[in-house]
Amino acid sequence: MKLNIKRVIAIIRKEFYQIKRDKRTIAIILLMPIMELLLFGYAASTSVDHISTVVFNNDIGIDSHELLDSFTNSQYFDINYIAYSMSDVQEYIDDGYAKAGIIIPPEYSANIKSGKTTQIQLLVDGSDPTTAQTILQSAGAITQSMAVEITGSRVAINSISQPLDLRSRVWYNPDMSSIKFNVPGLIGVILQTVTLMLTSFSIVREREKGTLEQLIVTPISKMELMIGKIIPYVIIGFIDIVLALALSVFWFRVSVAGSILLLLFFSVIFLFSALGVGLLISTVSKSQLQAMQLSMFMIMPNILLSGYMFPREAMPKIIQVISNIFPLTYFIKVLRGIILKGNGFSSLKVEFLILVIFGMAVLSMATVKFKKRID
Amino acid sequence: MGNAIEIKHLTRKFGKFTAVNDVSFNVKKGEVFGFLGPNGSGKTTVIRMLMGLISPTSGKGKVLGYDIAKDNDKIKEEIGYMSQKFSLYEDLTVEENLDFYGGIYGLSKDKLAIKKKEILKMADLKGREKMITSNLSGGWKQRLALGCAIIHEPKILFLDEPTGGVDPIARRNFWDLIYKLSEEGVTILVTTHYMDEAEHCNTIGFIYYGNLLTLDTPNNMREKAIDGDIIEIKVNDTLKTIEILKTKDKVREASVYGAGVHALVETDLPLTELEHYLIKHEIGLSSIKKVKPSLEDVFIFLVNEENKNVAP
For residue A101, what are the domain limits? Predict the structure, then answer.
């Protein structure tokens, strides 16, 4: 098939003129990435800290204050309320003022001094499992280290060593901050959503307005039309990825561990797949409404199954298999790999191949499906 | 001079519905060929088949010697098309629309500059190059659409109801442009349902429910197509007159025409006999005379004949 560059350029220029004059499109291009990144970056955060806590301290010794200090110093717990009875504690938690309650028995300091085992009670509001999980884990860790400290001072006297000692280190995201984990995936989701929304209208709109019929009677080939339609959105997608990256780095302080160039390169590869899907939707849709519905239909499973929201490892086998057909699944892997782990190209070869093959497949499907006839 | 378009036994069915039924005709190079018929009669389908937008169910067609079934791409280089919808990009300026179609047809920079100047002058759009197309009035949009359709100097121009939704003065101006193009040697195939526009054409084909009923020059059509005389009767009560006329033998057809009534009568019915008949039935005549049939008369006649053929 011959390719007339003049025709392709004519289409590209026309698309840009149209984008330039459409305020809604510009809003989608510029505001959507910023808004989604801010909204999801903050709202979808699963890290919980500064948990409002109520304390009922029956002990009068110094040791209980040391324990409570280590709770507050951890940043996980804010001791906002002091209770004077068990029913007080219950009230604070029932009414939602506190998510956790710490109850220290009267004999606490005395027991510590005399080397006896002592108990403290932790009450947790379990209605939100994520928060409850964090409370349990961090409280466990705090008491554990406190216990080690206390035994440590005794060990020095009795010289008994611990039989097992687990030293764990978390790699790539040592603070296990959910923003760091979310942002790379979010960049993928944003890119997918913006490009799908823009391209899914691009052909069906011309069909509705009648300009497509006019185009079909010109000598333009399908290939020329498709390429002309794609290039502007590749450029726009590229602008969006740079915007989203800048926001991640400078606002969310998520540093890119790997090569930014490699990241941009993969983004372009991914864009072709995302745009191909959009164009395919646009060619098979009969109206803009239909195109809208189809893209919504695509966006939801993409967000839910690509591993952006929920770990794919936790999904049933069949869902995992389904999620394999979304290019976003691979792109998110690439994004996390490069941004968090600093992966180089050699670790991402498989994803590269799959994205390229997928892109070529959907683009040729869209071209084949597009008929230069109207019957 | 040869033929720009030749079609033989062209048929197109959509499911069980036959949109175009065994239509054959030729269009000579450089003529203005009018395709006339009511809405939904198959005019657009014929044009779309000629341009390769729709494939024919059966039959053959040639445009500029190229086969419409095989040489679509060659045909598309040589034709211009303008539809009723004036398929312009409404959010682009006048100049951007011209640039776009110039680019699509692969015009060189110099050529495009020359053509743009020409078209802006022709369409009276000079000074409005930077106007957004959606802000133009109907007549301007129409002329811009024509300009976009002829920017690559096509040999044939297809106009599908090009004057729909445009005021009468703009319509007149538009036809002046069509004539100019025709004088320059462009073959024009235009569909319309305006009878006065049909008069502008060199040849008219009348299509009705997919069938080509007649094909001739407007003059010949008026003289030969009707078997009988047209009597124009000026009266006050047209509807009553039509009812009375229908009871008279040798009156084949009667219908409202302008402010009066046109009756189609057999040639051996004397005018005086008809006049007496109407007076006897208390019709207050202001005038009654034999007139040359108009195209409208011809089409009413043809449609009625066709319906009679189909009915039994």
Answer: 51-158
